[in-house]
User: Fold these one by one.
Assistant:
Number 1:
Amino acid sequence: MKWVNHMLVTGAIVYAVTADPLLALYSVAGSVLPDRLEGRPPKNKKAYWKWRQNHRTWTHWTVPYLLIITVILLLRHLKIITPVFWPVMLIVLFFFTGALLHIVEDFLCGKVPLINYKKKIGIKLFTVDSWGEYFFSIMLTVLLLLYRGSEYFNK
């Protein structure tokens, strides 16, 4: 997915689940982390294809992100993270949740190493930077915001 769609979809998902615009914003910031860790694709054609071979490898492996999220939640459960520090940890938690959602979103348009680092899996619902990607992203965002809106108005 293109970064704009990662940000849009991730923000909508987190907002639909939490109803908290700040948590959605933190996750939007984290939604580009896996690609940012890889750096920008080179302009040179030969260098681009070398970069492309390493695209969606260790930066798109779910395990490190899940581990960080699990440790934060475990430390909170064990009361090691005190209420004073919880707001800061919440930022970190949702930042990495955004990165994790990025990987799930890439799973929908290509292959990523979800569980096994050496084995990429995925489905191809649409091609990156296609009308299908933008349609999917916009429709999912609209549906999620309508869901959140209906929850708000039905209270």
Number 2:
Amino acid sequence: MSESRREQILATAADLFAARGFHGVSVAELGAACGISGPALYKHFPSKQAMLAEMLTSISERLLEVGRERVAAGGGDPAAALRGLVDWHLEFALTQRALIVVQDRDWESLPEDARAQVRRLQRSYIALWADQLRALDAHLDEPSSYAAAQAAFGLLNSTPRAGHAVPDARLRDLLAAMALAALGVAPAH
């Protein structure tokens, strides 16, 4: 199967899981939504749980990978790095609303090994933010920097529940300004 077909199946599954929950979607319904039979999905994924695991693991890997790129692009300036991280996380949050819902609601359906891998990746992603926050404010201790990073994620990950009447461009500007202010970072000029 081509990578784009695999991504299409995962995107369709994310939309269905977000709408009805992991346990509310049958393999037959998932296959039909992808234009194949339910059992044909097993040629591509060993189980529905494996599909969920790949979905959430791959997005956690991507968040961390691009997050590291944004920090590097900040050139050692923690404010620039944090602006880059906020921008990247908003891009994710506005384009992957279904994955945010799936992560929140269907976390317990992940196999334990996938849960451990996602937790490890998420801790690294949080640490990336927390390190920049401490570089920006030398008086900020480690637990507070982690709490601040997680609070920012809560704000940025509100996109599935916020802004239904607000166009994405306006919502992006609003959430970016709020997150940067909460993190103590001046907007770019």
Number 3:
Amino acid sequence: MAFALIWLAPTDAGIAALALPAVMLPRALGVSGWFDVTVCATVLIAAWSNVLDLYRTIPGWDLLLHLLCTGVLTVVAALILSRTDVVRMTRDTGARPRTSLVLAPVVALALSAIWEMIEWVGWAYLSDEIFVAYQDTIGDMAFGALGGAAAGVVLARKSLQRPSSTDGVSRHG
């Protein structure tokens, strides 16, 4: 984070600041290793894509990352909603598969809307270099919803919990 504040543009430092809690949440939630790595890799690729300007230079990169990143963050949000007893959305909490199939795209759309509002605030108050356009926003949200639909399938079919130790030794260290 200090690197971002010192050497990167303010908007890029802001992206790094948003990525930091996203890469810490899976570990705090105690998810399986494969999903922890998936979340961290996806969020870091999305953040560095902004720093390296890949969203402007690679056609379709923006939509691909909205699909992938929103999908994995939808699963993280579902874990939080399930563990706080707001709504059961995970297989591990006994949710019916159809619950996650219906609610995950809704959660994804909410996350997409929040992201697009953050982009708009950044454009309106921080830098006019942030790309904000109606077509871009709608496309980003549509692909985010598709990522949410994929997240619903994952939530309905896979256990995301870290396996518990069978030898009595905690592996959470």
